[in-house]
C-alpha cells in the first residue's frame, strides 16, 4: 500500500519537486487468476438479455453406477443428477484524471495512454482476483486451528479432506500471504520423512515474492493478501480448490464512440475531455462476477492472522 | 584544618540557550491512516457445520463457538447486485438471490445488528475503506490490528439466546477428528522442531474444549 494522489499539479505531487528520471511502482498484490480447472468460465453476458449466467453441473462421466439387473427384468431408469450455480455479472470501473498542467509537465509518460491501458488491464485482473478471494472463507467446514500458524500438518489434513470428497486434481491452494509463508517456514524447519528429501520441498520453500508459489504435492499454490479475515481478525482464510469449485462470467461494455474508446482485452477504455477545466479523464470499464459453483470442491483453511 | 571546598556554581541557562540547536517550523502532515487492506462491508453467515475452537485474544482458554463466514456486500460476488438509489443517492445491495443460494446451502444470513451488536464497522484506511468487527482496532500508520476481547462472549450469547442453534454431536466429532489429525502431524515432528510445542499446546487446548462441549451436549 502507499500514498495516492489525484493527478493535479496543485496536489503537491510535483508542484515544487524536481522529479527523478524514473519512477517505481507502489507495492501491490500481483495475484492474477490462474488458468486452472478450479475456475469454470460461464461465458459473456453480451446479447443474452440478462446479466446472469447459469453454469450447469451434470452427474455424468460415471457418477451413477450400473445396477445389477435380474435376468428377464427391466432395467430401472436413473435420472441424470443436476446442479447449477448462477453468476451475476456486475459493473466495475477505474478512473484517472489529469489536468493539462499535470500532463504538460509529465516528462516520463506517467499519463501516457498506453501505460494507463496497461494499468486498467492489470486493475481488471486484480479486481477479478479480489472477487475470488472474497469466496475463500465459505467453502465447506473449515479446518485448521484458530490462532495457530499454517502448517504442513494442516495442509496435509486439508488435502486429505479434498481427496475424500472425490475432488479431481491437480488441486489449487489459494493461501493468504501469511498462511503460505508460514507453510514455507514449517516445511523448511520441521518437515521429515517423505517431504524432507523431496526436491519440490526445497523449491517451494525457496520461492519468494510474486503470487505463484509453484506446485507442491500436486497442488498449485498461489498467495494473495486479499482473502478475508476470520474469527474477528484472529485468523485469515485460505482455501483448497478442486476442479469446478468456482464459476465466473463477464461482459464487455459496448463500443459506442470509437474515436474516444478502445478495447484493452475485456476492458473498455475511454477518455473524456473537459475543455473548461482543461482536464482529461480516462476510465476503464469491465463487467464480471464470481460464485461458488460446488461447495464440496473447496475447503476453507483457517490459520493465524499476521 | 579542613580545606574549604567551594561548591561549583550551578547556572540555569535561559530557555533559548538550553540546547545548542533550535527546531524551527513544522509541516502539518495529514493524519496517518491504518495501512491495512481495503475490504467490502459484509453480512455474517452461520452454517450448522461450521464450528471452531478458539480463544479470545490468545488468552489460552478455548471455547467451541460458531465459525461465521462473511457474505461480502460486493457486486459480482455470490450474486450480490449493487445499485444507487436515485432518490437518496445511497448504494443499495440487492441480496435476494445471494441469500437464496446461501440459505439453500444451509446458511443462516444474520442481520447487520445481532444481539445488540453491529458487527461490521467501516474504518478509513489508506486507499479507501476497510470493514472490521468492533473487536478489531486498526492503528494509524500501522499494518497491525489490535484486538480486544468480546467476540467469543458475543458468539456464546447468540447460542445462549437461541439466535443460533448449538452444535450437533456429529459436528463436534468431526471437529475433534480434524484437530486430532493436525495434532498427530505436529507431535510426529516436535522432536526435530521444538518450536512446534506452542502449536501443540494450542491444538491440545482446542481438543479439550471440543470434548468439554461434547460432554455439555450429552448432559
What does this structure look like?
The complex is a heterodimer of chains A (306) and B (219). Chain A is α+β, with helices and mostly antiparallel strands. Chain A has a domain at 139-246 and 295-304. Chain A is built from six helices and 14 strands. In chain A, strands 1, 4, 10, 11, 12 and 13 form a six-stranded mixed β-sheet that branches. In chain A, strands 5, 6, 7, 8, 9 and 14 form a six-stranded mixed β-sheet that branches. In chain A, strands 2-3 form a two-stranded antiparallel sheet. In chain B, the strands form six sheets. A three-stranded antiparallel β-sheet of chain B has the order 4-1-7, with helices on one face. A two-stranded antiparallel sheet of chain B has the order 2-3. In chain B, a hairpin with a 6-residue loop joins strand 5 (81-84) and strand 6. In chain B, helix 3 (169-187) packs antiparallel against helix 4. The N and C termini of chain B lie far apart (93 Å). The chains are: A alpha+beta (306), B alpha+beta (219). At the A-B interface, strand 3, strand 4, helix 3, strand 8 and strand 13 of A face strand 2, strand 4, helix 3 and helix 4 of B.
Q: Based on DSSP secondary structure assignment, what is the total number of beta strands of chain B? A: 13
Please tell me how large the radius of gyration of chain B is: 28 Å
Oligomeric state: heterodimer
Helix content of chain B: 25-40%
Beta-strand residue fraction of chain B: 15-25%
Number of helices of chain A: 6
- Give the SSE string of chain B: EEEEEEHEEEEEEEHHH
Helix content of chain A: 10-25%
The count of domains of chain B is: 2
Strand content of chain A: 25-35%
Q: Tell me about the biggest sheet of chain A?
A: 6 strands, mixed
Poorly predicted runs of chain A are: 1-6
Rg over C-alpha atoms of chain A, rounded to the nearest angstrom = 24 Å
Biggest interface, and residues per chain? A-B, 60 and 63 residues
Compute the average pLDDT of chain B: 88
Largest sheet of chain B, described in full? 3 strands, antiparallel
Question: How is the largest sheet of chain B built, in terms of strand order?
Answer: 4-1-7
Shape label of chain A: flat
Taken from the alpha-carbon principal axes, the silhouette of chain B is flat
Amino acid at each position: 500500500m502507499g500514498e495516492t494522489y489525484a493527478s493535479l499539479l496543485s496536489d503537491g505531487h510535483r508542484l515544487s519537486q524536481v522529479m527523478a528520471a524514473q519512477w517505481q511502482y507502489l507495492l501491490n498484490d500481483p495475484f492474477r487468476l490462474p488458468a486452472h480447472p478450479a475456475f469454470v468460465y460461464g461465458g459473456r453476458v453480451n446479447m443474452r438479455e440478462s446479466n446472469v449466467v447459469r453454469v450447469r453441473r451434470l452427474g455424468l462421466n460415471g457418477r451413477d453406477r450400473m445396477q445389477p439387473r435380474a435376468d428377464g427384468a427391466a432395467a430401472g431408469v436413473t435420472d441424470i443428477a443436476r446442479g447449477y450455480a448462477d453468476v451475476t455479472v456486475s459493473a466495475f470501473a477505474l478512473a484517472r484524471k489529469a489536468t493539462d498542467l499535470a500532463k504538460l509537465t509529465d516528462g516520463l509518460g506517467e499519463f501516457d495512454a498506453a501505460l494507463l491501458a496497461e494499468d486498467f488491464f492489470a486493475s481488471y485482473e486484480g479486481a477479478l482476483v479480489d472477487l475470488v478471494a472474497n469466496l475463500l472463507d465459505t467453502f465447506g467446514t473449515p479446518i485448521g486451528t484458530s490462532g495457530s500458524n499454517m502448517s504442513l500438518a494442516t495442509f496435509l489434513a486439508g488435502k486429505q479432506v479434498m481427496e475424500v470428497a472425490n475432488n479431481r486434481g491437480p488441486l489449487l491452494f489459494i493461501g493468504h500471504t501469511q498462511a503460505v509463508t508460514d507453510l514455507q517456514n514449517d516445511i523448511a524447519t520441521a518437515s521429515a520423512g517423505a517431504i524432507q528429501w523431496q526436491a519440490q520441498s526445497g523449491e517451494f520453500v525457496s520461492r519468494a515474492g510474486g503470487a505463484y508459489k509453484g506446485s507442491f504435492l500436486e497442488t498449485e499454490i498461489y498467495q494473495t493478501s486479499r482473502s478475508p479475515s476470520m474469527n474477528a481478525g484472529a485468523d485469515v482464510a485460505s482455501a483448497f480448490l478442486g476442479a469446478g469449485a468456482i464459476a465466473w462470467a463477464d461482459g464487455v461494455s459496448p463500443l459506442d464512440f470509437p474515436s474516444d474508446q478502445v478495447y484493452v482485452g475485456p476492458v473498455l477504455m475511454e477518455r473524456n475531455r473537459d475543455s473548461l477545466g482543461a482536464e482529461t479523464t480516462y476510465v476503464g470499464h469491465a463487467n464480471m462476477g464470481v460464485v461458488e459453483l460446488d461447495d464440496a470442491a473447496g475447503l476453507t483453511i483457517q490459520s493465524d492472522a499476521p | 584544618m579542613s580545606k574549604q571546598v567551594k561548591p561549583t556554581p550551578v547556572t540555569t541557562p535561559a530557555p533559548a540557550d538550553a540546547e545548542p540547536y533550535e527546531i524551527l517550523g513544522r509541516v502539518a502532515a495529514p493524519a496517518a491512516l491504518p495501512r491495512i487492506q481495503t475490504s467490502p462491508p459484509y453480512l455474517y453467515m452461520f452454517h450448522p457445520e461450521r464450528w471452531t475452537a478458539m480463544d479470545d485474544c490468545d488468552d489460552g482458554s478455548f471455547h467451541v463457538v460458531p465459525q461465521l463466514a462473511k457474505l461480502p456486500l460486493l457486486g459480482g460476488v455470490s450474486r450480490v447486485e449493487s445499485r444507487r438509489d436515485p432518490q437518496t443517492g445511497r448504494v443499495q445491495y440487492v441480496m435476494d438471490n445471494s441469500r437464496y443460494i446461501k440459505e439453500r446451502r444451509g446458511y443462516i444470513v444474520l442481520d447487520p445488528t445481532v444481539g445488540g451488536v453491529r458487527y461490521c464497522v467501516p474504518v478509513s484506511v489508506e486507499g479507501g475503506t476497510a470493514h472490521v468487527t468492533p473487536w478489531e482496532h486498526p492503528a494509524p500508520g500501522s499494518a497491525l490490528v489490535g484486538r480486544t476481547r468480546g467476540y467469543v462472549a458475543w458468539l456464546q450469547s447468540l447460542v445462549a439466546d437461541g439466535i443460533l442453534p448449538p452444535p450437533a454431536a456429529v459436528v463436534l466429532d468431526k471437529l475433534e477428528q480434524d484437530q486430532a489429525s493436525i495434532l498427530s502431524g505436529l507431535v510426529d515432528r516436535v522432536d526435530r522442531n521444538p518450536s512446534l510445542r506452542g502449536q501443540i499446546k494450542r491444538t491440545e487446548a482446542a481438543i479439550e474444549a471440543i470434548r468439554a462441549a461434547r460432554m455439555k451436549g450429552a448432559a
